[in-house]
Amino acid sequence: MEIRFLGHACFELSAGDARVLVDPFLAPHNPAAPVSAEEVDPTHILITHGHADHVADAVSVAKRTGAHCVAIVEIASWLNAQGLEAVSDPNLGGTVEFDWGWVKLVQAFHTSTLPGSAETPFSAETGVVIGMPSGLVINVGGTTVYHLGDTCLFSDLKLIAERTPVDVALIPIGGHYTMDRHDAVVAAELIGAGTVIPIHYNTFPPIETDAEAFKSDVESKTGSKVVILEPGATHEA
Fold it and tell me: How many whole angstroms separate alpha carbon 21 and alpha carbon 37?
């Protein structure tokens, strides 16, 4: 499976004919993104929660490509209301299966809103608080990727990984809105993935951090290998 980092917390996971886009936040909304919403062609779109830096381009990409979307039930209902029909609506603990594998929604400790009015669609001030955030355990072509979403540190990360051993963990390290790089080291210890890729950092000033220091700490304290990807870069898992 190929993992392509598209900046911030956005990834494309590809294997065979499957192109799974996670948390679509692309140019020009995302200052770190190497591509725009018009330059991706996913078969599926997965969403962790409703904040703008995770859903800004979900509707436009899905309408253009016909990609099948998966999101927690309240966000799925919002996607339906935007005119999308190919939408699955699990809640936490639910699993949706596809020809290429499956995705399971697991808990994340954070908040979640939905975009506001058409005039100010990505304004935090007009966003509507709704439902719960989630993490995503995703199996594509036999490789299991755990996208933690925007979470703080919590001990059941270990339980989630025990239930479904993780090959690659996508862990937020930026702090302020999520766990910081120090808590993220503990998260890596709890999950025990073979590979860890840091996410959700350096996009904006409040989440600037030292990814190389995170890598050093994780690799000195765990058996995980840390792969730091620049936006646009890929990793074979």
Answer: 11
